[in-house]
Amino acid sequence: MSKTVVLVDHPVGKRDDRASRLIAERGFAVEWYCPGKGDSLPEPGPQHVAAVVYGGAENLSVDENGEDKAYLRQEIDWVGRWLATDRPLLGICLGAQIMARALDARVAPHPEGLFEIGYYPVAPAPAANGFLGALSHVYHWHGEGFDLPQGATLLASGETFPNQAYRYGTKAYGIQFHPEVSARVMQRWLSTADHMLDRPGAHPDERQIADSKQFDAPLSDWLNGFLDDWLGWPEER
User: Fold this and answer.
1) Torsion angle defined by CA atoms of residues 214, 212, 10 and 233, in that order, rounded to the nearest 10 degrees
2) Predicted TM-score (pTM) of this structure
3) Residue 171, phi then psi, degrees to nearest 5
4) Cα-to-chain-centroid distance, residue 178
5) How many angstroms separate the CA atoms of 131 and 164, rounded?
6) What pLDDT shows up at residue 29?
7) How many CA atoms lie within 13 A of 34 on its CB side?
8) What confidence tens digit (pLDDT) does each residue in 24-75 have?
């Protein structure tokens, strides 16, 4: 039986991220699901060794209870059930917020209406225990953040949105940033969502492209190392 990683995405975007490619390169099978397009999420089976919940264009604080985005509530409930199995889970941006809501934590916009769109500094929290490694800047595209769930450990913090990464238990991680976004995908986002660049706090496209030349490679290296530890690779092959 193939060891399979469940990948949960959202209606806006393409499935060409760096994380799914790296997971597949490690020999794991991947199963994509998009509840926003009508997919039913699988109940964890013996072949399901981990799950990733990706980001999206949704604003969870507004959309969670909206009739047109009922799938978000389904995802929150599913993540809660997945967490109960104590299997590895990675929530990225919106995925980290969904995980926070599954743990009864608040998700909300910045109190001053600020956004993080671009590369921003990130710092280890006191209990990080090497989580960030040498990473100093991470890529963001969001206007909402999460409170730290009860029982979770803060791993990374930032100036605009203080909670940047957390661990729940030993195998579940929520990160507000986007290590899965390569420089190529970032440039597509800059083209398809350029209307977001006028949001307070967003960096202009020229700065993001310049910053990617300095910060994208370390972010890719960090994701490589994180996935090895998170998946227990190569032992899990």
Assistant:
1) -30
2) 0.96
3) -130, -5
4) 6
5) 12
6) 96
7) 11
8) 999 999 999 999 999 999 999 999 999 999 999 999 999 998 888 999 999 9
Specify the residue for token string 């420089």.
183
Looking at residue 175, its amino acid is: I
User: DSSP string covering 41-83, please?
Assistant: PPPP-TTEEEEEE---S--HHHHTT-GGGTHHHHHHHHHHHHH
Q: Is 211 helix (H, G, I), strand (E, B) or coil?
A: helix
Average pLDDT, the chain: 95
Alpha-carbon gap, residue 10 to 53, rounded angstroms: 9
Cα 9 vs. chain centroid, distance in angstroms?
A: 10
Q: CA torsion angle for 158, 164, 165, 168 (degrees, to 10)?
A: 120
Domains within the chain, CATH numbers bracketed: 4-231 (3.40.50.880)
Q: How far is CA 85 from CA 79, 89, 227, in A?
A: 10, 10, 19
